[in-house]
Amino acid sequence: MDNTVEFAKMNGLGNKILVVDMRGRKDHVTPQAAIALAAEAETGFDQIMAIHDPKLSSTDAYIDILNCDGTKAQACGNGTRCVVQALSAESGRKAFTFQTVAGILNAQEHADGTISVDMGKPVFEWDKIPLSEEFFDTSRIELQIGPIDAPVLHSPAAMSMGNPHAVFWVDRDPMTFDLDRFGPLLENHPMFPEKANITLAQVISPTQMVTRTWERGAGLTLACGSAACAAGVSGARTGRTQRTVSITVASSPNRGTLTIEWRDDDHVVMTGPAEWEWSGHLDPNTGDFTRDAEPEAGVR
Fold it and tell me: Is 229 among the catalytic positions?
């Protein structure tokens, strides 16, 4: 009996995504399958977005998110945009409501092809991010890398966008920092009991920022939507930027941009592109896969 399901290889500003159609099934993409798929050059990914039947009648689907190391992720903004594009190509619909472990997400595809995702409200309380130490003000916590008298990185803003983030402010291009060396140390720092996404952010103007991210469970990534949201909110929270900011993702192909709006109702809305690459079939238990001979956009 064929145990395969359809999937699409996609990306959001280079953030490598597999959108897997698990609708109509009771099983899940296993950690072993995720690790096997991540190890293959063709299917290497940052996140798997597994589309399941809705658990709530008010939603269109439940999205299960896996990192490339097989662990679960709470949020993935770039991946959510990919899900919207895939489902829109399948159904012609433009607006969707998803349930994730982090909560309810509303998303919409616009006429120009960009997609907006309401990422919900940021969380600033130290024990809810979570941090291992109490901080009254998490917009600047005590954490640094490098010599005490001349740290390379220091005093990040900490918050949660459904997953924990630390945003370090830098005064030059984030690509000039050795993030592949600092990233693992900071992701696994005792300050972060559930680990953390580590972002370097350079403020260009009150409405422009450049970022680069080491993603929890995925490593050095070409883009991270929730990290862009964390950087945008942290910029406004610390008075560095306005509440709407254009973020150039330094490590993405052609340095793509996201628009982050921290609305007056406290919701964070991320707008940006998604790109379909190819489709295929995979076994959610083992990760074995084949590419479609004549792929079409969408997951069905």
Answer: no
List the domain boundaries for the chain: 5-120+274-291, 144-266
Q: Classify domain 5-120+274-291 by CATH number.
A: 3.10.310.10
Which of 68, 76, 82, 229 is catalytic? The answer is: 76
| 144-266 has the same fold as 5-120+274-291 | yes
Reading the chain (300 residues) residue by residue, the pLDDT tens digits are: 589 999 999 999 988 999 999 999 999 999 999 999 999 999 999 999 999 999 999 999 999 999 999 999 888 889 999 999 999 999 999 999 999 998 899 999 999 999 999 999 999 999 999 999 999 999 999 999 989 888 999 999 999 999 999 999 999 999 999 999 999 999 999 999 999 999 999 999 999 999 999 999 888 888 889 999 999 999 999 999 999 999 998 888 778 899 999 999 999 999 999 999 999 999 999 999 999 986 555 654
CATH code that applies to domain 144-266: 3.10.310.10
Alpha carbons 109 and 241: distance in angstroms, whole number: 27
What is the model's pTM?
Answer: 0.90
Cα Rg of the chain, angstroms: 18
Rounded to a whole number of angstroms, the distance between the first and last alpha carbons of the chain is 20
**Inter-helix orientation angle 225-237/77-91, to 10°:** 130
Is residue 76 annotated as part of the catalytic site, yes or no?
yes
In whole angstroms, give the CA distance from residue 254 to residue 249. 9
